[in-house]
Amino acid sequence: MTEQKKILMVIAQENFRDEEFLGPKKVFEDSGAKVTVASNTTKKAKGVLGKKVSPDISISDVNIDDYDAISITGGGGAKEYLWDNKELQEIVRKANEQGKIIGAICIAPVVLANAGLLEGKMSTVFKNEETVKILKDNAAKYRDKDVMVDGNIITGRDPNAANKYGQAVIKALK
Protein backbone atom coordinates (compact mmCIF):
# COMPACT_ATOMS: atom_id res chain seq x y z
CA MET A 1 0.00 0.00 0.00
CA THR A 2 1.44 3.32 -1.04
CA GLU A 3 0.99 6.34 1.16
CA GLN A 4 -1.87 8.67 0.26
CA LYS A 5 -0.74 11.42 -2.10
CA LYS A 6 -1.56 14.99 -1.12
CA ILE A 7 -2.48 17.47 -3.83
CA LEU A 8 -2.85 21.21 -3.32
CA MET A 9 -5.43 22.70 -5.69
CA VAL A 10 -5.25 26.49 -6.09
CA ILE A 11 -8.28 28.46 -7.26
CA ALA A 12 -8.95 32.15 -7.77
CA GLN A 13 -11.24 33.83 -5.24
CA GLU A 14 -13.70 34.59 -8.03
CA ASN A 15 -14.27 33.35 -11.58
CA PHE A 16 -12.27 30.14 -11.42
CA ARG A 17 -13.34 27.69 -14.12
CA ASP A 18 -15.71 25.20 -12.45
CA GLU A 19 -14.95 22.27 -14.79
CA GLU A 20 -11.19 22.77 -14.47
CA PHE A 21 -11.54 22.50 -10.70
CA LEU A 22 -14.24 19.83 -10.37
CA GLY A 23 -12.98 17.48 -13.11
CA PRO A 24 -9.38 17.12 -11.89
CA LYS A 25 -10.51 17.13 -8.23
CA LYS A 26 -12.75 14.12 -8.91
CA VAL A 27 -9.92 12.35 -10.78
CA PHE A 28 -7.53 13.08 -7.89
CA GLU A 29 -9.94 11.89 -5.19
CA ASP A 30 -11.04 8.83 -7.19
CA SER A 31 -7.37 7.80 -7.32
CA GLY A 32 -7.17 8.03 -3.52
CA ALA A 33 -5.39 11.38 -3.25
CA LYS A 34 -6.22 13.86 -0.51
CA VAL A 35 -7.06 17.28 -1.95
CA THR A 36 -6.53 20.56 -0.11
CA VAL A 37 -7.98 23.70 -1.71
CA ALA A 38 -6.14 27.02 -1.45
CA SER A 39 -7.16 30.48 -2.57
CA ASN A 40 -6.35 34.10 -1.80
CA THR A 41 -8.48 33.84 1.36
CA THR A 42 -10.55 31.14 3.02
CA LYS A 43 -13.76 33.03 2.23
CA LYS A 44 -16.11 31.22 -0.16
CA ALA A 45 -14.72 31.28 -3.70
CA LYS A 46 -17.10 31.42 -6.65
CA GLY A 47 -16.65 29.80 -10.04
CA VAL A 48 -17.65 31.22 -13.41
CA LEU A 49 -20.59 28.80 -13.58
CA GLY A 50 -21.64 29.44 -9.99
CA LYS A 51 -19.89 26.66 -8.03
CA LYS A 52 -19.10 27.84 -4.51
CA VAL A 53 -16.07 26.39 -2.75
CA SER A 54 -14.79 27.03 0.77
CA PRO A 55 -10.97 26.94 0.53
CA ASP A 56 -9.20 24.96 3.25
CA ILE A 57 -6.23 27.30 3.43
CA SER A 58 -5.08 30.67 2.12
CA ILE A 59 -2.17 30.77 -0.33
CA SER A 60 -0.13 32.75 2.22
CA ASP A 61 -0.40 29.86 4.71
CA VAL A 62 0.66 27.08 2.31
CA ASN A 63 3.72 25.02 3.19
CA ILE A 64 4.54 23.15 -0.03
CA ASP A 65 6.49 20.58 1.98
CA ASP A 66 3.09 19.18 3.01
CA TYR A 67 2.10 18.25 -0.57
CA ASP A 68 3.20 15.90 -3.34
CA ALA A 69 1.72 18.02 -6.13
CA ILE A 70 0.16 21.40 -6.84
CA SER A 71 -2.54 22.04 -9.43
CA ILE A 72 -3.57 25.56 -10.39
CA THR A 73 -7.06 26.02 -11.83
CA GLY A 74 -7.77 28.41 -14.70
CA GLY A 75 -10.66 30.69 -15.53
CA GLY A 76 -10.76 34.47 -15.84
CA GLY A 77 -10.13 34.95 -12.14
CA ALA A 78 -6.69 33.35 -12.48
CA LYS A 79 -5.50 36.44 -14.38
CA GLU A 80 -6.79 38.82 -11.71
CA TYR A 81 -5.89 36.84 -8.58
CA LEU A 82 -3.12 34.38 -9.46
CA TRP A 83 -0.93 35.43 -12.41
CA ASP A 84 1.08 37.99 -10.45
CA ASN A 85 0.67 36.48 -6.97
CA LYS A 86 4.25 36.54 -5.63
CA GLU A 87 3.47 34.06 -2.82
CA LEU A 88 2.07 31.55 -5.32
CA GLN A 89 5.08 32.04 -7.60
CA GLU A 90 7.38 31.33 -4.65
CA ILE A 91 5.37 28.20 -3.77
CA VAL A 92 5.67 26.78 -7.30
CA ARG A 93 9.39 27.63 -7.46
CA LYS A 94 9.96 25.81 -4.17
CA ALA A 95 7.85 22.86 -5.38
CA ASN A 96 9.98 22.73 -8.53
CA GLU A 97 13.22 22.76 -6.53
CA GLN A 98 11.85 19.77 -4.60
CA GLY A 99 10.91 17.95 -7.82
CA LYS A 100 7.20 17.92 -7.00
CA ILE A 101 4.52 17.59 -9.67
CA ILE A 102 3.33 21.03 -10.77
CA GLY A 103 0.22 21.40 -12.89
CA ALA A 104 -1.77 24.30 -14.31
CA ILE A 105 -4.69 24.40 -16.70
CA CYS A 106 -6.32 26.95 -19.04
CA ILE A 107 -4.77 30.39 -18.42
CA ALA A 108 -3.10 29.28 -15.15
CA PRO A 109 0.15 28.13 -16.87
CA VAL A 110 0.92 31.88 -16.99
CA VAL A 111 1.60 31.60 -13.23
CA LEU A 112 4.30 29.02 -14.01
CA ALA A 113 5.71 31.17 -16.82
CA ASN A 114 5.82 34.24 -14.55
CA ALA A 115 7.59 32.15 -11.90
CA GLY A 116 10.26 31.17 -14.46
CA LEU A 117 9.32 27.48 -14.53
CA LEU A 118 8.44 27.10 -18.21
CA GLU A 119 11.77 28.15 -19.69
CA GLY A 120 12.65 25.51 -22.27
CA LYS A 121 9.62 23.39 -21.26
CA MET A 122 6.98 22.11 -23.65
CA SER A 123 3.68 23.50 -22.41
CA THR A 124 0.18 24.44 -23.42
CA VAL A 125 -2.22 27.17 -22.34
CA PHE A 126 -5.69 28.40 -23.25
CA LYS A 127 -5.06 29.72 -26.72
CA ASN A 128 -5.37 33.46 -26.97
CA GLU A 129 -2.87 36.07 -28.08
CA GLU A 130 -2.00 37.27 -24.56
CA THR A 131 -1.43 33.89 -22.91
CA VAL A 132 0.58 32.39 -25.77
CA LYS A 133 2.74 35.55 -25.92
CA ILE A 134 3.47 35.39 -22.17
CA LEU A 135 4.54 31.76 -22.43
CA LYS A 136 6.77 32.47 -25.44
CA ASP A 137 8.20 35.61 -23.80
CA ASN A 138 9.21 33.36 -20.89
CA ALA A 139 10.97 30.91 -23.26
CA ALA A 140 8.32 28.18 -23.02
CA LYS A 141 7.98 25.82 -25.98
CA TYR A 142 4.26 26.38 -26.61
CA ARG A 143 2.23 23.55 -28.16
CA ASP A 144 -1.47 23.74 -29.07
CA LYS A 145 -2.36 20.41 -27.43
CA ASP A 146 -4.87 19.27 -24.77
CA VAL A 147 -2.19 18.31 -22.24
CA MET A 148 1.59 18.65 -22.22
CA VAL A 149 3.89 16.84 -19.81
CA ASP A 150 7.52 17.93 -19.62
CA GLY A 151 9.34 16.42 -16.66
CA ASN A 152 7.47 17.41 -13.49
CA ILE A 153 5.47 20.17 -15.24
CA ILE A 154 1.99 19.38 -16.56
CA THR A 155 -0.14 21.92 -18.41
CA GLY A 156 -3.69 21.63 -19.73
CA ARG A 157 -5.32 23.77 -22.42
CA ASP A 158 -8.98 24.26 -21.51
CA PRO A 159 -12.12 22.87 -19.81
CA ASN A 160 -12.38 20.09 -22.43
CA ALA A 161 -8.97 18.81 -21.30
CA ALA A 162 -9.79 18.89 -17.56
CA ASN A 163 -10.13 15.12 -16.99
CA LYS A 164 -7.19 14.27 -19.26
CA TYR A 165 -5.13 16.85 -17.36
CA GLY A 166 -6.17 15.37 -13.99
CA GLN A 167 -5.20 11.89 -15.18
CA ALA A 168 -1.79 13.17 -16.32
CA VAL A 169 -1.14 14.62 -12.85
CA ILE A 170 -2.09 11.32 -11.20
CA LYS A 171 0.05 9.31 -13.63
CA ALA A 172 3.03 11.56 -12.85
CA LEU A 173 2.51 11.03 -9.11
CA LYS A 174 2.82 7.23 -9.35
From TrEMBL:
GO cellular component entries: cytoplasm
Q: Provide any one GO MF term from the record.
A: peptidase activity
| E.C. number | 3.2.-.-
Q: Which domain of life is it from?
A: Archaea
Record keywords = Glycosidase, Hydrolase, Protease
Enumerate the spans annotated as DJ-1/PfpI domain: 5-171
Any one biological process term the GO annotation gives: proteolysis
Record-linked Gene3D superfamilies:
3.40.50.880
Protein's name in the database: Protease I
Organism whose genome encodes this protein:
Methanococcoides alaskense
